[in-house]
Amino acid sequence: MYRNFAEEYSVHEDARAMIRKLKNEGIQLVWDRLKEQEPQCGYCSLGLSCRNCAMGPCRVDPFGEGPQKGVCGADADVIVARNLARAVASGAASHSDHGRDLVEVLSRIGRVDAYTVRDVEKLKRVAREYGIDATKSVEEVAFQLSQAMFEDFGSKKERIQLVNRVPKKRIEVWEKLGIVPRGIDREVVEIMHRTHMGVDNDPVNLLLQCLRASLADGFGGSMIATEVSDILFGTPEPKKATINLATLKESEVNILLHGHNPIVSDAIVDASYDEELIKLAKEAGAEGINLAGLCCTGNEVLMRKGVPMAGNHLIQELVIGTGAADVIIVDYQCIMPAIVDVAKCYHTAVVTTSPKAKFRGATHIEFTPENTHEKAKEVIKLAIERFKERKPELIKMPSVEPVELMTGFSVEAILNALGGSLQPLLDAVKDGRIRGIVGSVGCNNPKVKQDSSHIALAKKLIESDVLVVDTGCAAVADAKASLKTPEAAKLAGDGLRGVCEALSVPPVLHLGSCVDNSRILVALSAIANELGVDISDLPVAGAAMEWYSEKAIAIGAYFVASGLLVVLGVPPPIYGSKLVLDVLTDKVESLTGGKFVVEPDPEKAAEIILNHIEEKRKRLGI
Ligand code: BF8
Ligand code: SF4
């Protein structure tokens, strides 16, 4: 009977096989817990509940029969806008705090052994953007850049540095609206202030602050995270890798890299080459040490090092169910507390590494920039110990083959593939071989059949000659469906197919993790600058078909603030306010050129995007 559920829950056989196995073993999964929660609270789903103070909690009746105001007098519009703002603050804070951790490491270059600068060119280039003399020593430039980036987090700056990458016209739009992002922390704190009872009670004013804080994420925290990751760990270049649960190897010690920041995962990758540890693993009866990624830190090491990818968000419980996951090491974000419970049923150790993210029942091995190498080895040794404790009767790998993919498309790599200039891409867009470019981003959500919407959207878009660039769990979804191979060009329309075949690239390009959505901002800014237009003039759009996270709300908001149409496949909790809904799905277009559209059906979403692209092309006269 559960077989049917498995087919309802995911489009992939690796996931389905594990859902069936875990269900037979009586293990509760994310889909079961969703069922238990249903029907979910209608007030909360509409954004109409508030617990911002102890006069509440309050809720507003959507049918106009019950209370229309909270105890303080806040109406539906204010409550919905405040709730959305707090979600943006959380999302922006998550990306940005991740970025700050990388800046901390950058500031220690030359003072700790564990880290070096792997892309000196990029260090110098970014340093020059910050007005730093890049002729000094690498250590000195790294230190000065770190200090300048710390300033971007502070409260003194009128404008964070990297917004200067956008066309002048875009800055003017933001200036007019009063949403040029200042310090990253400042914008987040200001949301928390403004959403306290009795501060900002103008919903539109609150929504503008949502855009401002989201821009501090996109052009601040996230962009800093991407740039510093490239500087420290290398700017991604195209490479081949494999993906799905079959990347776990029954005969080897398997370590799953889960979470977001490359600081920990990159160190584990390095340590996994250690001869002594490999010898230890062999002495324990394993053939070697095998790493596989999950979620965004998986994307980070996939992009840079070609480390195989086990899967995306909804795979995290299932991977433990193979019975062959010896350690799952995490840092922060998108790590379900449930994995500790699932791990208890197997021999798997869940290892936490950040003082910011401890999980009850997990093994905490704290990583600092000073102790990284040593701790990475400790984690591998723990995995070898756990390998010895495997329960053979619980091991069952899904009978599928790993899927091949091509990854590593940083903006720099795309430029290289194009021969050093954007011109060939622009020519293809101008003459219509490529109709437009769409960023497909965001999560898995158990409310959507896993990966179904991401894949359907990407297929429809490439078939219509739209180049898809993807990040995060959307990227993993597309890869599992074999859309990230050069051969997938045959699924594209004739125009896009020709371009991909000439360059030997897939029609769906992997730009990285969720903070790497900033690469999309960089690429679009460069294209707009080259054409002498604003970002909002370009035939481009964004989509987050299966989003669940507050980070996705921040991403959607900075895309909209940058002038993009953004399709959300899961309704955000704003339907309780006609005003907020109207502003975000309509009126904002007259302000920023972008807007949200909510459309769960990927076919319809693709239609909306394609019409938008054609409209933009017409206006550009191409
Ligand atoms: O930052 S796409 S489920 S893993 S939030 Fe999370 Fe969503 Fe995946 Fe990465 Ni992004
Ligand atoms: Fe209720 Fe107002 Fe307090 Fe919110 S802020 S809980 S609406 S009294």
Bound molecules: FE(4)-NI(1)-S(5) CLUSTER with Oxygen, iron/sulfur cluster
The CATH topology of the largest domain turns out to be Rossmann fold
Cross-sheet strand order for the largest sheet: 6-5-4-7-8-9
What structural category characterises the helix and strand content?
alpha/beta
The rounded Rg comes to 24 Å
Instruction: Give me the count of strands.
Output: 16
Task: Determine the N-to-C terminus distance.
Answer: 54 Å
CATH class of the largest domain: Alpha Beta
Whole-number count of domains: 4
Total helical elements? 25
Q: Detail the poorly predicted runs.
A: none
User: What is the 3D form?
Assistant: globular
Binned strand content:
5-15%
Measured as a percent range, the helix fraction is: 40-55%
What's the rounded overall pLDDT mean? 97
CATH architecture of the largest domain: 3-Layer(aba) Sandwich
Oligomer: single chain
Largest sheet: 6 strands, parallel
